[in-house]
Amino acid sequence: MSVAPFGRRLLEITGIEELGAYVVLRAADEGPRAEPGQFAMIAAADGWGGGERQRPLLPRAFSIARQTHGETHFLLEDVGPGTRRLAELRAGEGLWVTGPLGRGFSPPQDGRRAILVGGGVGIAPLAILQDTLTAPATTVLLGFRDAARAEGAALLDGALLASDDGSVGHHGLVTELLHEELDADPHAAVYACGPAAMLETVRRICAERSLPAELALEAGMACGFGACFGCAVARRGGGYLRVCVDGPVLDAAELDSIDEHAGAPSYPIAGHM
Fold first, then answer.
1. DSSP state, 233?
2. Given CB 3.0 to 4.6 Å as the disulfide criterion, which of 20, 37, 119, 172 pairs with 249?
3. Sign of CA dihedral 235, 239, 242, 245
4. 146 & 240 share domain
5. One domain, residues 235 and 133
6. Which of left, alpha, beta for 92 (phi over 0: left; psi -120 to 50: alpha)?
7. What's the pLDDT at 54?
């Protein structure tokens, strides 16, 4: 597991890229390499406040979407004061980053092909996962609300798409595509990140078929270090798991169900990855 240096570090924004409703934020970064599925706590170096008195906002937890050519990339959508300020950043401005944090994905075993299932902004950790997989075959299934958000699929290669409104790809749920893939070839390992309802369906499908599955949860985080317990989810058999330190990637077998607050909504909320 990659270990972040103690404290935060100041990075310089190198550019932004618009993908429909989303923004890819790129920052120069010579810090530790992230494992697929890890995240970082980020904040704008300037203008990071809210309300009449501009009280400082908490850093936001974002999955690391890609690391390449000395840059770290984050995928975000402008839905509130924190994400709006991040989306406004331009080349040359500063970004405070703490990370990589948490536990990431593990590679597929027993010659299984990897099936990546993402929904909305939950596609982010699947991009860096696809970059690092060496399995002989990888299938990517992505679901979005509409065509504007489906442009985010450009973050990954060769994805099959589903959309709620039928504007792009399969008219319906991305988990319907997962059923079809597993019916055709069940020797697979599933990796998923997205809304809670999607993750719960993925968990159930894989449990019914006795397939290995790893789920990247996106509970809202205040600290990122396991101190506040704001991201705790129930563990199968009793007790709790803190998404920021025990996850964010968890073995689906550790969970009886996916709590509503543990998945990425179809639109991100302030404080979510």
1. E
2. 37
3. negative
4. yes
5. yes
6. left
7. 64
